[in-house]
Specification:
10 strands; 8 helices; NADH Oxidase; two-stranded antiparallel ribbon; globular; 8-stranded antiparallel sheet; alpha+beta
Length: 216
């Protein structure tokens, strides 16, 4: 089932008229950076985000902290009955080893698949009321979810929200450990984000996490 989910990126790209994408293999996650205690102490919402854009290694470390595998078939973030309803997407403004575009993360292979062109500004900027610090960020991570993987109704949706919160906290702490600035975007039209990203049917955007370097 997890392998099938990772083919969603491939199918979405074909529906958008793009050529079959070749997944980018992300560098293996490292244990470098600040300690957990230091990351917890230093975690804070930062809205003054500037470039340069995130490198492939930085993006990979953040994605792994939110939804990566830390043992075969099991992820860093706990999931109800190991159903894994979350999907992670990345909007990048473009770095030397990570071109601008919209990407989908595959946990089982620790890869990124490019889905479409565009930057956070071009993809999110057209959404009414989108805050400047979000669309101008060098990178925006989107935590999306498909609650039906867990079950039906409010219980499944609540469990998906809980897991999304845990994934977001993992990414935010990892950003702090890497010396990056990040925050959770509030007051965002998540339905419009879901449409802008052309997410698969049944999948909806839950949390936006702008990330970049801290403006001094």
């Amino acid at each position: 089932m997890r392998r099938f989910r990772c083919t969603l990126a491939f199918s979405t790209a074909l529906l958008l008229g793009a050529q079959a994408p070749t997944p980018l293999k992300l560098p293996l996650p490292t244990a470098e950076g600040a300690s957990l205690q230091a990351a917890l102490k230093g975690r804070a919402t930062v809205r003054t985000l500037v470039g340069p854009a995130l490198s492939l290694a930085e993006a990979g470390q953040l994605l792994w902290a939110a939804q990566g595998e830390n043992r075969p078939g099991k992820r860093v973030v706990p999931s109800a009955r190991a159903k894994y309803p979350l999907e992670l997407y990345l909007l990048s403004s473009g770095a030397t080893d990570l071109p601008a575009g919209t990407y989908h993360y595959c946990a089982s292979g620790h890869t990124l698949t490019r889905l479409a062109d565009g930057t956070p500004g071009t993809v999110l900027g057209a959404i009414k009321g989108m805050q400047a610090w979000i669309k101008d960020a060098p990178a925006v991570f989107v935590v999306a979810g498909e609650a039906s993987r867990i079950g039906e109704g409010a219980p499944a949706l609540n469990l998906t929200y809980y897991e999304a919160g845990a994934a977001a906290q993992g990414l935010l702490l990892q950003a702090t450990a890497l010396g990056l600035g990040a925050g959770t975007a509030s007051g965002v039209d998540l339905g419009a984000v879901t449409q802008a990203l052309k997410l698969p049917k049944g999948t909806q955007a839950l949390i936006l996490l702008p990330v970049g370097h801290v403006k001094l």
